[in-house]
Specification:
Arc Repressor Mutant, subunit A; Rossmann fold; three-stranded parallel sheet; mainly alpha; 10 helices
Length: about 200
């Protein structure tokens, strides 16, 4: 299990699971999961080296039997649907974790999915062929990540460094975002992000 410091005691005393390891970034997480036997990985959306959405898909590819619970500071309306679509078994915010952590782990370990009612409703809406999607929902996970960072006011060089990608790759993502969303420039992206309350 991959877990942050604050929940170790809860796992040992109340949940009865054994902590087999913890890592600090997405690349190490994937390596650890490849090399160790574990039943559950608790991961964040935002990690150095590899974001959580990418990591979910890669865990599913190499260890499909491992249960994946997202534990993050990001509100559900930012990433929960994308995380579940990528293959997560549950999504829990750190604000609700003190009361719901045990329940979430129990649910996913029993083969279920753990999301709030709001996320379950949004996932159900996705099945409706007549539902009109918001502009940002058409973006890939990586495009959405770049889109939000531009929306925070970061320039392409800063984003490239944060995501460990080249400047030209980030510029390509930016071009795709502008085209898909019919926007003209970074100012339009910032305006869209603020207007739709997509920042934490």
């Amino acid at each position: 299990m991959l877990i942050r410091e604050g929940f170790k005691r809860l796992i040992d005393s109340e949940i009865g699971l054994t902590l087999v390891g913890e890592v600090g970034n997405g690349l190490d997480a994937l390596r650890f999961i490849r090399e160790n036997e574990l039943d559950l990985a608790v991961i964040d959306i935002t990690m150095p080296g590899k974001n959580g959405l990418e990591l979910i898909k890669e865990i599913r590819a190499v260890r499909p039997e491992v249960k994946i619970l997202i534990l993050t500071m990001h509100p559900e309306d930012r990433f929960a649907v994308r995380a579940m679509r990528a293959g997560a078994d549950g999504y829990l915010t750190k604000l609700s974790a003190p009361t719901d952590f045990f329940k979430a782990i129990q649910k996913v370990m029993q083969g279920g999915k753990y999301v709030s009612e709001a996320v379950a409703e949004e996932l159900a809406f996705e099945l409706d062929p007549d539902r009109k999607k918001s502009g940002h929902e058409a973006l890939s996970d990586r495009e959405y990540e770049v889109f939000r960072l531009i929306g925070e006011g970061k320039n392409l060089t800063e984003i490239a460094k944060e995501l460990s990608l080249s400047h030209s790759t980030i510029n390509t993502y930016r071009s795709r975002i502008l085209e898909k969303m019919n926007l003209r420039n970074n100012a339009d992206i910032i305006h869209y992000v603020v207007r739709n309350n997509l920042l934490d």
